[in-house]
Amino acid sequence: MTLQIFILGTLSEAESHPYDIKKRLLKSLGNTIPINDGTLYYQFDVLQKKGLIQKLEVVQSDNRPEKTTYGITDKGLKALETEIYAAYQNVTSISALYATLFYLDKIDKNKLAYLIEEAIDKRQDKLKLIEDTDLDTLQIPQEKQQPLELLTDHAYHSIQSDVAWLKKLLVYVRSE
């Protein structure tokens, strides 16, 4: 869904060609969203079939392939808003939110702040659960204790990092 959010968000600001969106995506997000031409054009096809975008112009020049300009529909604008909120309601990884950052001006900041607060609370609950877990009581064989400690340590610090980032995002959203 991240790629679709980026496509819809970009088209909400201006009509564009898929290739131009790919260049903008790579410039903005680098390799955080894996993309190839097949995936990109497939997503354009999906969005068009859903009625979220539409072809505006097809230009054919002499020795070049067709160049199709797309625009977003009213239904696409509503879907963009819905998908941005959904990304924050179901945060599985922080990197899944990257594409949304460029289009936060399309949504209600108070609603977004509430969703970010919920995401922070969920992660803080996970931190508390890890802190409260006594690994010694889990009856793990001795040879498995250190791998479990490493795994737990990584999970804990990753969640801490997510919370810190979400708090920075919350400050940014509230300052807008």
From TrEMBL:
Q: Which domain of life is it from?
A: Bacteria
One Gene Ontology molecular-function label: DNA binding
Q: Which Pfam families match?
A: PadR
InterPro entries noted in UniProt: Metal_resp_DNA-bind_regulator (IPR052509), Tscrpt_reg_PadR_N (IPR005149), WH-like_DNA-bd_sf (IPR036388), WH_DNA-bd_sf (IPR036390)
- Coiled-coil stretches are none
Q: Which residues form the Transcription regulator PadR N-terminal domain?
A: 7-81
Keywords on this record? DNA-binding
Q: Which PANTHER family match?
A: PADR-FAMILY TRANSCRIPTIONAL REGULATOR, TRANSCRIPTIONAL REGULATOR RV3488
Its protein name is DNA-binding transcriptional regulator, PadR family
